Amino acid sequence: MLLKLFKYDFKASARFGVPLLIAIAAMTVLGCISTAVTVGNAGAESFETATNAPFEEMLIFFGMGGLVLISFALAGAAAVMSVLLVVQFYRSTVSDEAYLTFTLPVTSAQILWSKLFNTVVWSLFAGLALFLAGAAILGTGITMAGVAEDFVNTFGELFAFLHSMIGQSGLTVFLCCILGAAAFVSSYLMVFMAITFGSVIVRKHKALAAVAMIFVINFITSGITSVMQFVLLGDFTIKSVMYDGMFALNNFLVSSIVLYAATAVIYFLVTRYMMEKKLNLD
Q1: Confidence (pLDDT) at 23
Q2: C-alpha to C-alpha distance for 45 and 6, rounded to whole angstroms
Q3: Closest Cα partner for 33 from 62, 76, 72, 73?
Q4: CA–CA separation, 247 and 253 (whole Å)
Q5: What CA–CA distance (Å, rounded) separates 187 from 119?
Q6: Residue 119 has what pLDDT?
Q7: What's the average model confidence in pLDDT over 100-126?
């Protein structure tokens, strides 16, 4: 049943997720065009001699302006995706649609898992789309500038350096990836808990209460997490850095992963409890 619920949530998110991905693709094309116009009319020699014709200078100006706007638009698309995923959770769990959601033959835990899986999947789609957009725009600029060979050589040297660093500190890289995933999951579960809690404490203006609780709970949990990290690792980390900086960093990453994992579990359990015992759908 969890898989069926996830499919339903995925299709519901596709109503805004697919158009956003298409918009990112369109903005990528425009970004490539802007980059081609800018770089094509502002080569290295043109910048050095400052002999561009007025028309070329105008093209450079509009190309650069368009590239800046597209960069903001791409970042905005990612933000809109996150906001709409949160709004979808709000509508299906605490607004009028919640009556339909909670009449399904599923548990509150399954509802939460489905929402979380759906959020992770669509966030990954958006992240991959933005990465490809950046790569395409950068690749266009490199190609138009005629420095592809130099870039490949420089990138190869950088990759070799990173490879050697990873070989020496592969555990650190792995822990950083795990920490990022744990922080991402914990942050969304915190938002889910805040929305649910907001609907529990008020009968009207649930959306406003949800937004307020997101900021309040985020502020409180961030403070508690920072204090716990300092108390648990402050003195130990300072001493460790003096002898083994990498060991201290790994120790900090592990502790952060544990804290984010613990908070994620707490958010999940509290949200499930409120959904089962305290949720007010009037």
Answers
A1: 94
A2: 56
A3: 62
A4: 10
A5: 11
A6: 94
A7: 89
Give the pLDDT confidence score for residue 13 in this predicted structure: 93
**CA–CA separation, 264 vs 270, rounded Å?**
10
The first and second tokens of residue 100, run together, are 């339909």
Q: What tokens were used for 67?
A: 């590239």
Q: What is the pLDDT of residue 50?
A: 45
- pLDDT tens digits, 247-263: 566 777 888 888 889 99
Structure tokens at 246: 């990498």
Using DSSP's 3-state secondary structure scheme, residue 178 falls into: helix
User: Which pair of structure tokens corresponds to residue 129?
Assistant: 């789309």
User: CA 189, CA 265: separation in Å to the nearest integer?
Assistant: 9
* Distance between CA atoms of residues 143 and 151, nearest Å: 10
The per-residue pLDDT for 116 is 94
- How far apart CA 5 and CA 118 sit, in angstroms, is 10
Written as six digits, the tokens of 138 are 């950068």
Q: Which of 208, 173, 180, 179 is nearest to 194 (CA)?
A: 208
How many other C-beta atoms lie within 10 A of the C-beta of residue 245? 11
Please tell me what DSSP assigns to residue 105. Answer: S
Question: Hey, what amino acid is at 41?
Answer: N
Q: How far apart are CA 103 and CA 100, in angstroms?
A: 5
Give the tokens for residue 168: 């020496």
Closest CA to 92 of 112, 107, 117: 112
The string of pLDDT tens digits covering residues 122-142 is 999 999 999 999 888 888 877
Report helix angle 108-145 to 148-168, nearest 10: 140
CA distances from 171 to 165, 168, 260 (A): 11, 8, 18
